[in-house]
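Assess this one:

_____
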Amino acid sequence: METKLIIFDMDGVLADTEPLHRNSKYKILERFGVHEKPDLSWTVGIPNKEIWERLMSQYGFQSDAATCEQMQYDGILEEMAEIHLPPSQGLIPLLDWMEEQKIPVAIASSSNRYFVDRVTEFLGIKHRFRWIVCGDEVARKKPDPDAYQKVLQLAGITPNQAIAIEDSHSGSKAAFRAGIPCIGYQNPTSGEQDLSCCTTLIQHLEQVKDLIP
C-alpha cells in the first residue's frame, strides 16, 4: 500500500538529545542533594512524570514532577544552544527527499508542546512537519498509542498508510499498538533498546528511503 505519511519520534530521532536529557537529569538530582550519577538508561522513552516520581521516591527528595520536567527541558535547551546541537545525521537529506516524493511528515512525541516547539525551531525544521502531536495533548503518553492515533486522525489515514520511526522500546511499542509499521532507528546514545516491535532496523536515517513502498 502507498505510504501517505511518515511519523517521526523527536528525542533521539530528529536530534541526538538523549545525552542532553541525561545531563539535565543529573544536574537536577545534584540540586536536590543527589551527588551520584545513577544509570538512567531505563528512562529513555519513558514519560518524564513517571521518571521523576520514581527518582523522588528512590532518593527521598521532595519536589513536583511537573516542576522537575520543566527544569529538565530548560536545561536541555540551554545545552543545545551551548553546543550548537545539529539535527541527526542524514535527517535533512531524508526530509528533502520526502518533500520531493510528496510524502508528508509528522511528529508524535511524548515530550510536551513547550519543548517540542523549541527543539524543532532551534533545529530549523518545525515548518517541515504538517502535524505535530505532543505528550501533553493526549490522555496517555507512549507506550500507549494515543499520540500516534491522534496523528492518524488529523491526517485522515489508516495505520497501514503510515510508517513510524522510533529509537526506543516505549515508542516502538506505541506505534505497534496503533497498528503502524515502525522502523527502528538504532541510535547508540539511546542505549540498548528492545526494538522487537519494529518491522526493520536501521543505523542511519537515510536508509529509510529504501524502506518506503
User: Anything to note?
Assistant: The chain is about 40% helix and 10% strand. The helical segments are 18-31, 48-59, 65-83, 91-100, 113-123, 146-155, 169-177. The mean pLDDT is 95.
